[in-house]
């Protein structure tokens, strides 16, 4: 029933803002066009005072945090979404309506166990920014020593948001189950696994202690780096619903005019964004997975060598060593236009069924990619390539890999952000040298020597046990050999018995046929009134019967 009412609300919002007018009718099948044309909401007028981008933004805001997140992702894709819609959706990044300051202050006091006046030397009741999950307030610490008088931001989770998210997740699970049950594509797309992965992600974002630990790890990974900076977390002021961290000053990455005004090197800035992504994924296997412009700033220092500042680390991703290896190999083969290798890697990794004909899959990938690679690299959108590749792979039953969903989303965000900063961004030539260097470092002689040195102490420690382990292994092998010989002997005896049984059966069958032939001959002689021949035949049958019984 809860799912029903939530679905009813979604339909109501869809109708109220006439989102059907955003659907490209000419690209739909005739049956769907007819259905949309006769739908009841056609009787409601399109709100003329609101453009289509504003209607979509207001609809997503009305539907809650999960839909707002979706809008944030769309806002970073000007190559996929019309400019007027992107402009409105950007407001979802940090301009979501805030909740009551009194409620926020009460929640902070409840979580930290003290009055605001005892916790902070200064506290601003007006929120600095408000997003889909939480909002932040500016404060100043009392502190001692280096912390004295430091400006901080206090992040507070929206009260009661868990119920809204749980309701939406249940609706998504219900819809995913319907897709699996009634759609031929359901199994391949793995909608239930994707929703479950998103459930884990979104609930991790609601726990600010998890976000604080993510931010601390990312800050450690980029300590002293000129590429990326993460604010310091103050753990003594951090709980499940409240987190206090260092306040940063920077230019919002979406404020291109201000970046140009300080003579920021936009080419370096865009390329560093790509380098940061691949560094987090392949060097650390721990990446910030919510890289929309509302969470990214640029330091005001050294505009000729710009440094990123990242906040809001509630969503992070990681990959296994096996996934990293296959991903790197796929990307390199793709950059080198080695489509057969791309197809073979998809089979080897299990992303497509093992029965897939590699040459056919490679030909399909080539048909999609060759026209794209004919363009200048700066004009190629990785987002467009992914969309077309997924459409092609559907014909070969490629299954969705839930562990790669966050990675794909983050890469799309990074490319969209990079193209906003520097439209000539060449993602391919920026990423390829990094991947080649990573592969050499990971699988080259230096990597082998490094792994040998890492494992050597463990091997030395286990060296005294090796003779005993070898003796035990040989004993088990000898015992296995004896068991194998016994089994072989039993198999031979069984084979002999089966052969004897088959020979006996053949003998009985031949005798039965011969006996039947004799009886038939006797009957014919008797029928022809030749008693001598009939009597002789009967004696012959009797002798044959005795021989068969012997």
TrEMBL record:
GO terms of molecular function: ATP binding; protein kinase activity
Record InterPro entries: ABC1_dom (IPR004147), Kinase-like_dom_sf (IPR011009), UbiB (IPR010232), UbiB_bact (IPR045308), UbiB_kinase (IPR050154)
Residues reported to bind ATP: 128-136, 155
An annotated GO cellular component: plasma membrane
Top EC group: transferase
Keywords: ATP-binding, Cell inner membrane, Cell membrane, Kinase, Membrane, Nucleotide-binding, Transferase, Transmembrane, Transmembrane helix, Ubiquinone biosynthesis
Active site: 290 (proton acceptor)
Biochemical pathway: Cofactor biosynthesis; ubiquinone biosynthesis [regulation]
Record-level GO BP terms: regulation of ubiquinone biosynthetic process; ubiquinone biosynthetic process
Record field: transmembrane: 522-548
Taxonomic superkingdom: Bacteria
Domain ABC1 atypical kinase-like as annotated: residue spans: 91-345
One protein family per Pfam: ABC1
E.C. no: 2.7.-.-
Subcellular location: Cell membrane
Membrane topology: Single-pass membrane protein
Major location category of this protein: membrane
Family statement drawn from the similarity comment of this UniProt entry: Belongs to the protein kinase superfamily. ADCK protein kinase family. Belongs to the ABC1 family. UbiB subfamily.
Role, per record: Is probably a protein kinase regulator of UbiI activity which is involved in aerobic coenzyme Q (ubiquinone) biosynthesis.
Protein name as it appears in the record: Probable protein kinase UbiB
């Amino acid at each position: 029933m809860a799912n029903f009412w939530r679905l009813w609300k979604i339909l109501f919002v869809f109708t109220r803002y006439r989102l059907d007018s955003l659907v490209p009718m000419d690209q739909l099948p005739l049956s769907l066009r007819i259905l949309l044309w006769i739908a009841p909401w056609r009787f409601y007028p399109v709100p003329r005072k609101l453009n289509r981008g504003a209607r979509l933004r207001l609809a997503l805001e009305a539907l809650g945090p999960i839909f707002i997140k979706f809008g944030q992702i769309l806002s970073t894709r000007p190559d996929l979404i019309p400019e007027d819609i992107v402009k409105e959706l950007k407001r979802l990044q940090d301009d979501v309506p805030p909740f009551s300051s009194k409620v926020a202050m009460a929640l902070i006091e409840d979580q930290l166990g003290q009055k605001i006046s005892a916790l902070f030397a200064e506290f601003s009741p007006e929120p600095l920014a408000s997003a889909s999950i939480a909002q932040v307030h500016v404060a100043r610490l009392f502190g001692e020593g280096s912390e004295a008088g430091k400006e901080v931001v206090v992040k507070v989770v929206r009260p009661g948001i868990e119920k809204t998210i749980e309701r939406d997740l249940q609706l998504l699970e219900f819809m995913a189950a319907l897709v699996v049950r009634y759609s031929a594509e359901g199994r391949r797309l793995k909608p239930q696994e994707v929703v479950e992965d998103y459930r884990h992600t979104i609930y991790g974002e609601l726990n600010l202690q998890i976000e604080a630990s993510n931010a601390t790890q990312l800050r450690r990974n980029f300590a002293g780096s000129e590429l990326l900076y993460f604010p310091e977390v103050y753990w003594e002021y951090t709980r499940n619903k409240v987190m206090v961290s260092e306040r940063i000053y920077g230019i919002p990455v979406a404020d291109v005019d201000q970046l140009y005004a300080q003579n920021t090197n936009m080419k370096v800035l865009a390329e560093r964004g790509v380098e940061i992504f691949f560094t987090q994924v392949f060097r650390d296997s721990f990446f910030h997975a919510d890289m929309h412009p509302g969470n990214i700033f640029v330091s005001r220092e050294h505009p000729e060598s710009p440094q990123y500042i990242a906040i809001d680390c509630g969503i992070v991703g990681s990959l296994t060593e096996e996934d990293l290896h296959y991903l790197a190999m796929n990307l390199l083969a793709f950059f080198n236009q080695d489509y057969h290798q791309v197809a073979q890697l998809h089979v080897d990794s299990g992303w497509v069924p093992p029965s897939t004909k590699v040459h056919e899959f490679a030909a399909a990938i080539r048909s999609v990619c060759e026209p794209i690679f004919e363009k200048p690299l700066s004009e190629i959108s990785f987002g467009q390539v992914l969309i077309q590749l997924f459409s092609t792979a559907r014909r070969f039953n490629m299954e969705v890999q839930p562990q790669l969903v966050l990675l794909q989303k983050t890469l799309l965000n990074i490319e969209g952000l990079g193209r906003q900063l520097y439209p000539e961004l060449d993602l391919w030539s920026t990423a390829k040298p990094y991947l080649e260097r990573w592969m050499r470092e990971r699988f080259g002689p230096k990597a082998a020597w490094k792994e040998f040195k890492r494992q050597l102490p463990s091997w030395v420690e286990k060296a005294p046990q090796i003779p005993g382990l070898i003796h035990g292994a040989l004993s088990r092998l000898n015992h296995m050999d004896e068991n194998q010989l016994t089994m072989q002997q039993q198999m031979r005896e069984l084979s002999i018995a089966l052969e004897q049984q088959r020979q006996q059966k053949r003998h009985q069958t031949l005798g039965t046929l011969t006996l039947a032939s004799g009886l038939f001959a006797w009957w014919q002689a008797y029928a022809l009134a030749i008693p001598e021949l009939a009597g002789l035949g009967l004696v012959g049958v009797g002798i044959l019967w005795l021989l068969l019984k012997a």
